[in-house]
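Most newcomers find our protein records easier to grasp once they have seen one. A learned vocabulary of local backbone shapes supplies the integers on the structure line. An example says more than a description, so a record of this kind follows:
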Amino acid sequence: MSERMNVSIKLESRQDGAVQVNEHRGELFRKDRSLYIRYEEPIEGEANSEPIRSLIRYRQGELLITRRGAVDSEQLFAVGGKRAGRYRSPIMSFQMETETEQLALHAEDAAEGELAEPPFTIEWKYDLWIDEHLSGRFHIRLHIQGEQ
């Protein structure tokens, strides 16, 4: 893989039977034993709002999502136990935990968990806990496709 690559990102989130799909353009790069995906999320309905800059770091067995801008949050996903995170916006702020049931990178030409060339999918299932109460169960698929 070249140092940096422009990619199309499709984020599919399932919670309690409801599906939400978001598409973005971003950048993929590799550093050490990790893949990084960087993109911006516009704030819908607010023309002058600061976009949310998202950075996803995947390495075998661990996924970290950091968001900065109109929202400031950090979530860590790793199978086995709960992982601390946080969320802050102008409206609210809270601590949260994720309990990950599954985390895998799927690619046609790569062994399970191997850092792959696009196209590939990172898939994870987790429970979200807020103030020690189960807030929701999620199944996420992050599809990455190289752009020409």
